[in-house]
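Figure S7 source data.
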Amino acid sequence: MYSNEIVVDIGYSKTVIAVRGKGIIFNEPSVVAVTKSRGKLKLIASGLDAKRHMKSRDRSHGTTLVHPVKEGVIENAEAAVLMLKDFLKKALPHRSFLSPKLEVIAVISCGISVVERKNYENVLSAAGLKSPILMETPIAISALLSSDYNLIVNCGASIADIAIVGPTGIITGCSVTTCGIEADRKICAYIADNYRMGISSVHAEELRIKIGSFYDNRLVDAQVSGKNLVDNTPHQAEITANEIFPMLSDVALNLADVVESVSMMCPEKLIMDVYHAGITFTGGFANSYGLSDFLAERLKMAVNVPKSPETTPALGALAFFDDREKMYKML
Ligand SMILES: Nc1ncnc2c1ncn2[C@@H]1O[C@H](COP(=O)(O)OP(=O)(O)OP(=O)(O)O)[C@@H](O)[C@H]1O
Ligand SMILES: [Mg+2]
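Tokens for the predicted adenosine-5'-triphosphate complex:
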């Protein structure tokens, strides 16, 4: 039997749903395959099914793949509602209209505007999740940490949240777009410039995950396919880890600069506490080979990556259901 307390974390790349007493019950790509008819979107498939559908031969005419959330904000509210409704159906198949109301914490990026928060609430409500608690990602993660003051860096596909969090919430922090997609964009540009080849961002991401390294001496390579930019014919190239290292280290240096700026805003009396706790580094991008070492060396601080860093925000938010008093102090 599921509890009625759930967490949803809708990212650009993945949507994670967790339930109190169960943990993570759903983790699929945040995409929908849709068609448009008379100005309205019609859902064809969501998540993994949507990705499969777009690759299949019998894909219906006019179907497009939409990422409803980008850079921490709702980009396409109509698609977001269709996606979330379908995800909830898949994640909680036994719920009916007689089931008790769900209590929801939605993990959001820090620093989004009042209007953007309202958009989030409207989407959640239209998908059946009324009166949600919106919780900034770094606050959610702090629930899993033993120190009182923590420097938290959550780096996903389209947005990175960096914040110092204390017992009463975020002390200082910001959001930047220095993360997965930015690295992929740089890789696409490099391959276009040096091989006269256009590759999709999906191929760039696959290449980055396969061979990308934040150490400058990784000896691996991989083949990547795309289109010749001169005559549009299919083209392939062998790319080495060393070749794309400068693009990746660029992203990591930018990220380190932002982390440094946030730590400089730390009140002096907390500096030693934050330093001793080290940096907690989460989000899917924290899985990148060598990135935590790169940041630790650059920032002269310990950088700790939890297991499955992409689901840490949802698990952290879930922990707050056990201590609501603490939660309300932090929001
Ligand atoms: N093993 C890996 N190595 C390198 N990068 C990875 C790995 N696994 C996932 N990523 C990257 O992590 C990013 C996705 O992380 P995450 O699931 O935290 O993002 P998200 O929450 O969906 O996005 P956002 O927070 O931007 O809305 C993608 O850019 C993906 O390429
Ligand atoms: Mg995220």
